[in-house]
Design goal:
The structure holds two protein chains of two kinds. By secondary structure, chain A is of the alpha/beta class. Chain A is built from four helices and four strands, in the order E-H-E-H-E-H-E-H. Chain B has a five-stranded parallel beta sheet with strand order 2-1-3-5-9, with helices on both faces. In chain B, strands 4-8 form a two-stranded antiparallel ribbon. Chain B has a two-stranded antiparallel ribbon with strand order 6-7. The chains are: A alpha/beta, B alpha/beta.
Amino acid sequence: MSEEFEPKIVAFCCNWCSYAGADGAGVARLQMPTNFRIIRTMCSARVDPEFVLRALSKGADGVIVLGCHPADCHYIGGNYRARRRIALLRLVLEQYGFDPKRLKLEWVSASEGEKFQTTLTGFVDTIKKLGPTPLVQEEK
Amino acid sequence: MSFLDRFRSKKAKPKEEKKAAPAPKAEAPKSHKAEAASCAGKTAASVEASQLAFSDLVESGQPLVSYKFGLGAPPGGKINLAIYWAAACGGCDVSILDINNGVLTVGDMANIVMWPVAADGKEKDIAAMEDGSITVSIISGAVRNSENEHMVKLLRKKSAIVVSYGTCACFGGSPALANLVKGGKDEILDYVYTKVPSTANFQADYHKGSPVVPQSHVKAPEGDLELPVLYDTVKTLDQVIDVDYYVPGCPPLQESISHLLKAVADLLYNGVALPPKGTTVGVVTKTLCDQCHRRKEFRRVSKIVEPHEIDVDPELCLMDQGILCLGPATVGGCNARCTSAGQPCRGCYGPTVAVQEHGASALTAIASLFPVLDEDPTCGEDQIIDVMSTIRDPLGYFYAYTMGKSLIKRSVTEKGGN
């Protein structure tokens, strides 16, 4: 392949912190790669592991879940739930043979536009190094 | 009358029972012969043989299904019934006999044209039948090799209704766990035939040089020999053919097959319409926890244990005791047989109707049971991974029965990168 690999990344952002953080990054006109698509959820705990698996099964090269900082959740404990599920899901993905780095959980608050930028840039770099998703759709 | 009562009464007066029994027996062969004449050519003899074998099972007593023995053939004549196993253990075939006397209703209303585990009926006989001439085909097992695929496609072509029977057919079951072997069929064949220390291939010197591994095509002096080709990916039945009804369970309960039988009998004798296509027979809408008798205290769990490691409280929820139970994510319908016996649910009935991904659903529910730690606000993700590692083999446990239906169906191999 002569062209550089441009990964497709799905980013789940919680409504109260990370989505506002992404908004802040945009308002501040921070430079960011264009490889990610944001899906807004009400809480990081709304991100069912099924969403992540579905994203990967449809060809996403990486999935990042962003939520409020620990002890800062709008719903008190949603992000604690989320981090346990994501931790377990990373173990599952590792068993499938995926590099667990393809799934990342990070905390970004509403005021952290800059952290949103660095997190996403770093994640895109990680995925670029890992290469395209190992999942092949053909059967048999 | 319970089974035990009937058993006792039979013991008490065996002579009467024996006298009562021959009456239907004597009648049976007549109707069978008449039916055999009308049923499609080649299978007639073998069908009749299997029917007689059924009537040998006759004992008196109350039938377990609502249809009594001795209904005779349905008004439209007997239907053709095929029961087939693909990649299955045979437990589903045995479970069909769990309906006890109900099996006689089957004998009344159907010619069994194929049932490899119990009756005769060959592939060529089925191939010679007209399309759609089998009314019901009950197929258990996942599709794992070319023979499975050929047979289920053939049965689909010849059948009006196909029932996906048992967990392997519905969700892939245990056979589908083979999808997690990275090397696919080659690795499996290599391991099973050359690496297992107890095999003759491994032990005997005379096989050392060229181990005996089954080939799909062999040239022998007598001619070319063909064996089915094993597939890398095990599929569920509905990924290969169109399926009309699903009966999950490993194996399905007696009540499920009785429901199915009643639906078919209702159609044949009373003209009652069948349930809509795609119906899952024998499940409820809520999860297993709703049927489980155990007391739920909604305790937090921080360590997962096996049932043999602790004294299991017979009244308390297994998940409360730290035993990994898939009840919160598995659809009810089995009347919580396993949890009543002190064993955790392993999820053989599959997910509820609202969920596709059974394993992810179980993972979500069980991860939420872990308590919030004091150091949670300050610790990193690695520490949480350590906490969650108390669940060993999460993929194998959560997807034990539903790998074939999962969103990511095979193990993958990262190619480059670091």
